[in-house]
Amino acid sequence: MLASKRILLIIGGGIAAYKSLDLIRRLKERGGSVTPVLTRAAEEFVTPLSVSALAGEKVYRDLFDLTDEAEMGHIQLSRSADLIVVAPATADLMGKMTGGLANDLASTLLMATDTPVLCAPAMNVRMWDHPATQRNLKQLQADGVRFVGPNEGDMACGEYGPGRMSEPLEIVAAIEAELGNGPLSGKRVLVTSGPTHEPIDPVRYIANRSSGAQGTAVARALAALGAEVIFVTGPADVPPPEGVQVVSVETAKQMSDAVDAALPVDAGVFAAAVADWRVASASDKKLKKSRDGLPALEFAENPDILKRISHLEKCRPALVVGFAAETDNVIEHATAKRGRKGCDWIVANDVSPATGIMGGSENAVILISDAGAEEWPRMGKDQVAERLARKIAKALTS
Ligand code: CTP
Prior knowledge:
Rossmann fold
């Protein structure tokens, strides 16, 4: 809820501005008040009248408006909110913010404020990927500006990739988390992620192709809803998200110990691709080629972390979510796996090479629970994570 929270919403000039109209509605539904500011370019996409009607407040548009300045000067306007939200945050607005320009009302407010700022970027994929935008993003993050999105998907310009503004409900969730009001505030959630490396000798190991992208996205989405996240990660390709407690491990055994140390938690999401076996007695010296033939590796079984946690008598998290990476008969195998492991939900996906899911940026999952199998459309891993996080929030708070 956002009761009595004041949000200054700066709407930039991009096609995604139409989503900001819905964003205003969603914020008002939750009891927030919205003071809208439109850039000149934004007025090409949405009208001041529709924005004002939805917000139930005056729209601010001009830096040099004498009436506005007399009623509430731009300095006061910039500081009277609990949070400033820039949605859509265009490449131009991000550039101005980074460079410290103040040549219109929106950029002047952003320069004059000491209120936290949350940006929801929206732009063409090439503009998002452009080194200038990526440089600006890094600088703004370093300056303390928070970001939600952009999402990956089909864009209004006909291209595909990252650059789509987050959906209004995702922005609402990020706003609630920023204001300490996320649905998962006060909840502690554990996420395992990435592959494990099982040593053969000091220089060789057994691994798998997990990039850690899905687990990382889940941890980020849970934190965005206000959860305290303990992120236990194997050696992943992607960096851990910000705002979570990171515990880095290498082997399944270390991951298992780190999970135990994180208990108790309200929910556990086990997204790691844990190696089922380790080399029974890894050599402490590099194995050398020998005339006696090839080395014979003997394996030992690793602890099944998900199964163990699901069966804990004391300290079992209220919700245990496992993942199932399958290559055939996905629903059948994953349903059986849910029974075997004893977890509440299984997020199943088809990782056959043809799907491009393992190591890719998209996922097509089936959520298996008591209620049966729920197929989600193929979408970005971030979106899968956000949908899963919202579902977890619902389960923990209902
Ligand atoms: N998992 C775990 N510890 C293990 C192995 C798996 O916690 N030692 C968890 C994974 O994080 C995932 C789920 O169990 O949430 C399913 O993992 P998967 O490797 O697909 O299951 P397996 O038990 O290995 O089943 P199979 O090899 O038959 O597919």
